[in-house]
Design brief:
Number of helices: 8
Low-confidence stretches: none
Number of strands: 11
Radius of gyration: 17 Å
CATH architecture: Alpha-Beta Complex
Order of helices and strands: EHEEHHEHEEEHHHEHEEE
CATH class: Alpha Beta
Mean pLDDT: 96
CATH topology: Cyclic Phosphodiesterase, Chain: A
Strand content: 15-25%
Number of domains: 1
Helix content: 25-40%
Length: 225
């Protein structure tokens, strides 16, 4: 399969990964749609429409087009070499958090090592990233971006990296305030029992966005450092 963009994600496996795929309606590892759980009088598929195409994940290096002169095989080789040097990271757990109107799972406890890992991945694989076109750059500009986020957008192609990075696993699109308690309760019931404690980030995934617009897992690699 040819891919329009690539990214480095954390994509959980096991019961937690399966629960997340069911929640969103897309299994990024298998590259197929999944029937979400039926909940009476609760339109789950409507709430998860926006994040569905990305699959259940936490972004480590945001999506990017491949740079001119680079090929997917080189990117995959660099990804594998990098993962052999990175160490697994243990978090205390994950919390359900509302972030600007959407629900996400965020890291609990100290994230210094995790943030440093994400920054390392962004830097290491940046030679494979095509620069943003002027139209893409303009589309990603937001009036509320800080000066540091503006520099990130210019230097790394995305504002929320480096010191502005926050590990999170998006569960919904924007939810009206009056519906957030109900959405949060359903998410807790569906996902909460499957979240490991402590929570180990022990592998990373190279993923690609296909012509169908959906993201597919190309390779999951254990962190062996």
């Amino acid at each position: 399969m040819d891919y329009e963009r690539y990214a480095i994600y954390f994509t959980p496996s096991g019961a937690f990964g399966q629960a997340g795929a069911s929640w969103l309606g897309w299994d990024i590892a298998q590259g197929r749609q999944v029937t979400p759980p039926h909940i009476d009088d609760f339109p789950l598929a409507d709430f998860t429409e926006t994040p569905r195409k990305y699959g259940f994940h936490a972004t480590i290096k945001p999506p990017f087009a491949l740079a001119s002169g680079r090929n997917p095989q080189e990117l995959q080789a660099a990804f594998e070499a990098m993962c052999k040097e990175l160490e697994p990271i243990a978090l205390a757990g994950l919390n359900f958090t509302w972030m600007g109107g959407f629900l996400a799972l965020t890291a609990e406890g100290d994230t210094e090592l995790l943030n440093a890992c994400a920054a390392h991945v962004v830097r290491t694989l940046d030679p494979f990233r095509a620069p943003l076109s002027p139209s893409d750059l303009a589309r990603r500009q937001r009036p509320n971006l800080t000066d540091a986020q503006q520099r990130n957008l210019r230097d790394w192609g995305y504002p929320h990296v480096m010191a502005s990075y926050r590990f999170h696993m998006t569960l919904t699109g924007r939810v009206p305030r009056r519906q957030r308690d109900a959405v949060g309760a359903v998410a807790l019931d569906h996902l909460g029992p499957h979240i490991p404690r402590p929570f180990l980030v022990g592998d990373l995934s190279l993923v690609g966005q296909g012509a169908d617009g959906m993201f597919h897992q190309i390779q999951r690699m254990r962190l062996l450092g």
